[in-house]
Structure formats: C-alpha cells, structure tokens
Amino acid sequence: DAGVIQSPRHEVTEMGQEVTLRCKPISGHNSLFWYRQTMMRGLELLIYFNNNVPIDDSGMPEDRFSAKMPNASFSTLKIQPSEPRDSAVYFCASSLEQALGGYTFGSGTRLTVV
Amino acid sequence: KQEVTQIPAALSVPEGENLVLNCSFTDSAIYNLQWFRQDPGKGLTSLLLIQSSQREQTSGRLNASLDKSSGRSTLYIAASQPGDSATYLCAENNAGNMLTFGGGTRLMVKP
After folding, report:
1. Which residues in chain A have their CB less than 8 angstroms from residue B34's CB?
2. Nearest Cα residue to A89 out of A63, A108, A104, A70
C-alpha cells in the first residue's frame, strides 16, 4: 500500500481564493482524520470521519472550512474564502476502527495564503 | 478535555547517550498511545503503538512504556545517533477514536 496520499504537497494562494486539499486513505481503513499543524498551536484535529460519515467536526475553525468524504477512498478539505491565518500544514490520517493498528499520516499539504 | 504534555520541549545530547522522553496525559480512559517522529518539513512517522493492556513496546533502539495509573509514557532511545535528531510526538487515543497530541520534544543529537 502506498500509504495515505495527500495532494497537493504545497499550495500558495491569494487571500479570498478557494483552496481544496485532497486525501486518499489507506485501503481498508474506515476512519479518516484531518489535522492542522502550526508553530503556535501544534497539531489540532479539525474533523473526523468514520465509514464516510462525519463524526466530530468541533475542531473546524469556522464556516469557511468544510470537509467531505464522498466514498471510502477520497476526502477533501475546502477553505472558502481563504485567509492568511489559514497558512499551516494540513495533515490527513487514516486508521482502522478504534485505531487498533494506530494512525497513519500522509505527508501533508503546506498551505500559504498571501 | 484531554491534555497531553511532553517534557522537555527541547533536548540536545552528544552522540551515544541513552535518553528518555516523557509524555503525560490526563485521560485515564486511554485506549492506546502512539509515538511519532517528525523531521523538519515532513509528515509524521509512527514509531511505536502501545495498547492500553500493554506496558511496553520495543523496536530496535526504541522502547516505549505505558503506565496508565500515573498517566505517563516514556520513550527510551538507546545509543543515540545524529540521525535520531527530529521532533518526537506522543499522542493519546481515547475511546472516542481521536488522537490528542502533546507539544513534542525537539531532539538534537550532536556528533
């Protein structure tokens, strides 16, 4: 398995533009997580899906952020409109139910909003 | 709300030393605990996973222990090498299947 695959690796966009981050979890994993990492706040959980259903989105900062998981092999995190304070590294992770085998993280998307 | 604390925040040691990184957590209903390594500008690499029923796990020069009663986990690195330089993160998984991360320990091993 190629692991958790995220795209793009880097994204630079202007304030106000829409940004879409993509994630392909490990085949067979039924839980998917989106995290954001910044120097100031460390790793923060944004949203968690189980069997393609959002379970906990309490970490989503505001309505500008939305996430979808249309099927077991694909998820998106969208920011519209983007702001400079959204600049961070966004990680996607997947696991089996109850994380019996632990979490596997993707390589992340480094987002810069100018 | 669960809290995970890692100390020290940064550590610099000469090559060859044995060292211990500490992680403490407040949630007694821990399901498992995972240690990760993160190199600058990179993603998280899983090092060790300890289930709540286990007391320790070993992989090569790494050994992680878990003491639920005291809310502590330690990562022991034997005979440290410059290639071990990275940030080490511990993360607790509660029964809700969500990871709570500590702030990390930034390790530098000097040749």
Report:
1. 99, 102-103
2. A108
Instruction: Please list the helix, strand and coil fractions of chain B in percent, rounded to the nearest 5, in that order.
Output: 5, 60, 35
Tell me the Ramachandran region of residue A10: left when phi exceeds 0, alpha when psi lies from -120 to 50, beta otherwise: beta
**% of chain A at pLDDT higher than 70:** 96
- Which chain A residues are closer than 8 Å to B46 by Cβ? 102-105
Residue A12 has pLDDT above 70, yes or no: yes
Peptide bond into A25 cis (omega under 30): no
| Residue of chain A nearest B35, judged by CA positions | A102
Confidence band, pLDDT 50/70/90 cuts, at residue B105? very high
Q: Which residues pair with A105 in a beta bridge?
A: A93
Cis link prior to A84 (omega < 30° from 0)?
Answer: no
Burial (CB < 10 A; 0-12, 13-18, 19+), residue A58, is exposed
Asked if A99 lies within 8 A of B32 by C-beta distance, the reply is yes
Is A104 within 8 Å of A95 (Cβ atoms)?
A: yes
